[in-house]
Every structure is written in C-alpha cells, then in structure tokens.
C-alpha cells in the first residue's frame, strides 16, 4: 500500500513548542484527522483535507484515519502534547489490533511531542527531577475507584504525581476528592504546581502548598504537578519560586 499514517504530537499549544519533525509530518500529509481544537492550531493548506471529531470518538477517528491511509493517502493524526500520553497513539494501536487485517499492513509511525507535564515542569523549575508518574483523573475510560487507588499508592510510594484531565463540567468534584486523598498521605507543605496553558499567551502558573490546593484553581487546560515529601521550593526575591525534586531521594542536606 502507498498510504501512510503518522500520529503526530503538536506539543502543549505554542507554535514554538512543536518539533520540526512534527511540523514536517503535518506539512507532508494529504489529510489531517484529530480533535477539532487541535486541528484549529494548524494553518490551512491548499489541497489538504481536514477531518475533525469529538474528543470521545477516539477509536472511530483512528479507524477513519486508517481507512484513508489504506486507500492510499498520506494521513496525519494529530494530538495535543505527546500522542503516546493519554492520546491517540494508543487508540491507533488498539484499532489496528482489533480492526480488519488490511490495517496491519500499513506504514504507521508515531512522532513525539512535548507533553503538558514537561511544559509545566519547565516553567516551574525541575519538579520532575526524580521519580514521577502521570495519572489522568478522567473516569471516562476507567472506574473512579481505580483512580483513587493509584493516587493513594503513588503518594505512599513517594512519586511526584502529574495530574492530567483534572476537572470538567461533568466531573466538578473529582479534583477536590483527589486532593483530600493526597493530603491524607503527604505532608501539607508539599508543593503543588498548577500550570494552565503552559507556553501559550494565556499561560498561568501558580505554586501552593498541598494544604491550600483547591479544585477552583484548575480547569481542563491545567496540568497539575503534586510534589513528594522530598520536593523543595526555592523562594527568590521578586521572582517566581523554583520547585524541584532533588536528584538524590531523601531529606534535604
């Protein structure tokens, strides 16, 4: 088959945070597939078709993109951040596994991007400098009981925790519940970084202790990084604080 599907990470939102490899993959595509707000980030190009869909239609979107590639098109499936982090690369792999045999013969590639937790971490200092994990608070694809279990165990294990999909209109209470669980397992002084739209014109970064972390400080454009007991905050005169996780685990020296 002459078609090709490339799953592309657009980065956290700012044009300068999109890699040259991702830019080239988008420019070379005959057709773009993706969640409508992500497609809206890209300039329109003559002869290049666009196929927007809702954020709850991942498998259907993957199937449509694979069909287009199977028909001979050079297709780019775009995701915000990195396509392998709570995004479309997994959906494409699942579609290939469960779909028609012709999809298994396609040339499929994944182009990485800067995921939200890395963009937020860069603005805050180095909060991911030691062991960390990422947890999505959305229960669309997994039960909330499992989210709670993972939060509790990650905190007890001493991981810095990046929280994706913290709140939505359909889930207004879950972030507050998550903070309550984390306060039961961590010191109240642990730093929490709220990073909204990191790298974009409407960027907002705030650092508060866990005792003061509230759901009202976040929306769906926010990625949150919750420190561990080893995390440190460096206060600077007239400048934002630096949050970092020491490279050596254990108490400060």
TrEMBL record:
> Which positions fall inside the Tetrapyrrole methylase domain?
4-213
Pathway it acts in? Cofactor biosynthesis; adenosylcobalamin biosynthesis
Q: What Pfam families would the database entry show?
A: TP_methylase
Gene Ontology molecular functions: precorrin-3B C17-methyltransferase activity
On whether Methyltransferase is a keyword of this UniProt record, the answer is yes
- Biological process annotations from GO: cobalamin biosynthetic process; methylation
Q: What is its EC number?
A: 2.1.1.131
Q: Which domain of life is it from?
A: Bacteria
Q: What class of enzyme is it?
A: transferase
The record's InterPro entries line, in alphabetical order, gives:
4pyrrol_Mease, 4pyrrol_Methylase_sf, 4pyrrole_Mease_sub1, 4pyrrole_Mease_sub2, Cbl_synth_CobJ/CibH_dom, Precorrin_MeTrfase
**CDD domains attached to this UniProt entry:** Precorrin_3B_C17_MT
Keyword set, alphabetical order: Cobalamin biosynthesis, Methyltransferase, S-adenosyl-L-methionine, Transferase
Q: Which PANTHER family match?
A: COBALT-FACTOR III C(17)-METHYLTRANSFERASE-RELATED
Protein name as it appears in the record: Precorrin-3B C(17)-methyltransferase
Lineage of the species this protein comes from: Bacteria, Pseudomonadati, Pseudomonadota, Alphaproteobacteria, Hyphomicrobiales
């Amino acid at each position: 088959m002459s078609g090709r599907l490339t799953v592309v990470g657009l980065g956290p939102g700012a044009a300068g945070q999109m890699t040259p490899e991702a830019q080239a993959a988008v420019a070379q595509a005959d057709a773009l597939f993706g969640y409508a707000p992500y497609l809206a980030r890209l300039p329109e190009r003559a002869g290049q078709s666009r196929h927007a869909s809702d954020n709850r239609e991942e498998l259907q979107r993957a199937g449509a993109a694979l069909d287009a590639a199977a028909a001979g098109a050079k297709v780019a499936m775009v995701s915000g951040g990195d396509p392998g982090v709570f995004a479309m690369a997994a959906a494409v792999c699942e579609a290939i596994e469960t779909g028609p045999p012709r999809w298994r013969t396609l040339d499929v590639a994944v182009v990485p991007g800067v995921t939200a937790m890395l963009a937020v971490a860069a603005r805050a200092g180095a909060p991911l400098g030691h062991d960390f994990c990422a947890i999505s608070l959305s229960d669309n694809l997994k039960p909330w009981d499992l989210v709670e279990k993972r939060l509790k165990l990650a905190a007890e294990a001493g991981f810095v925790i990046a929280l994706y999909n913290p709140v939505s209109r359909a889930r207004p209470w879950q972030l507050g519940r998550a903070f309550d669980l984390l306060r039961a397992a961590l010191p109240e002084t642990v730093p929490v970084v709220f990073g909204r739209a990191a790298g974009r014109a409407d960027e907002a970064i705030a650092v508060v202790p866990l005792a003061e972390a509230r759901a009202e400080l976040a929306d769906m454009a926010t990625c949150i990084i919750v420190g561990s007991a080893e995390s440190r905050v460096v206060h600077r005169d007239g400048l934002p604080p630096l949050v970092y996780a020491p490279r050596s685990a254990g108490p400060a020296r």
